[in-house]
Amino acid sequence: MPSLEQLTNQLKLAFENKDYTNVDQLLTPIKVLLIENDLLIPNQLKFKDSDYINDLIISRSILEIGAISSINLKDFIKFSNYVSQLKVFYFNSVEELNKSIKKNKILSLYLLLLLSNGDIVKFHQELEFLTYKIPKLDSDLYLSYPINIKNWLLIGDYEKAISNILNESSEVKIKLKEFNIFNETLLNTIRLEISESIKNSYKSLPFLNAKYLLFFANEKEVEIFAIEQGWSFDKNVLYFKQNDDVVNEDNNIDQLTNYEKLVKNTLNYAKEIDSII
Predict the structure, then answer these.
(1) Which of 99, 134, 159 is the last residue in one of the domains?
(2) Which of 52, 74, 99 is the last residue of a domain?
(3) Which of 14, 39, 64, 226 is at a distance of 20 to 30 A from 45, taking alpha carbons?
(4) pLDDT digits (tens, 9 = 90+) for 22-65
(5) pLDDT single digits (tens) 156-168
């Protein structure tokens, strides 16, 4: 079996070449060797040994490569596991282990993963933990991105959230292209939130209105989304099954009034989510 040094050199080369599949394969034997050398999980009893700390810094870099590779492979379960392992390095009593240029990048990607999964409770738990551990969280280039997206969703400013999600030329997207991996899932999460308000507010809705409310490019996308949600439609009009107590009394009011009602509903929906926390 190749030595840890040989495998680590192969790992770095594969990562630099963006050969993430090879990176993932190399990490299996590397982690076995890290375990054998007491380096996968920091041993506090050895923290006074400077050589051991230096070896742990290398181990941390290896895990960071694994985390970023997992994101690019869209293996989000494996990515979450790497984040859990890295937290032991990022948040301990050894300053050398806490400092890493990739730290806030990886943690911000984890927050974005939770947001894209619609796991609001877990998102807030992580955010509370990070707020305690990392000063000036909101002003960090990377961590502020998922935080801002969450805040815009909370107040119902979906247009601003979506415009930032789709803007791949922003500074943060240029410096961390992995943010773009979550674009589609974030958009879908937002549309699912809006769709809850739509189906609770209307008996029916023309495709044209739904296109704007759900931020679709065309009415064909509305049709595909409707099929996915199990909505019925006929002649470019959506029909929703509702309970009598949530149906609007007058469903034929003008488009502007409908939109205002939808905004009000989405704001209430966001507040209900936040009240759970």
Answers:
(1) 99
(2) 99
(3) 64
(4) 999 999 999 999 999 999 999 999 999 999 999 999 999 999 99
(5) 888 899 999 989 8
Distance CA 204, CA 226 (A): 12
Pairwise CA distance, residues 15 & 218, whole Å: 39
Cβ proximity of 180 and 173 under 8 Å: yes
CA dihedral 208→152→197→267, nearest 10 degrees, is -130
CA distance 82 to 105: 13
Domain that holds residue 52: 1-99
**SS3 state at 27:** helix
Is 133 within a domain?
Answer: no
Q: Is 16 left (phi over 0), alpha (psi -120 to 50) or beta?
A: alpha
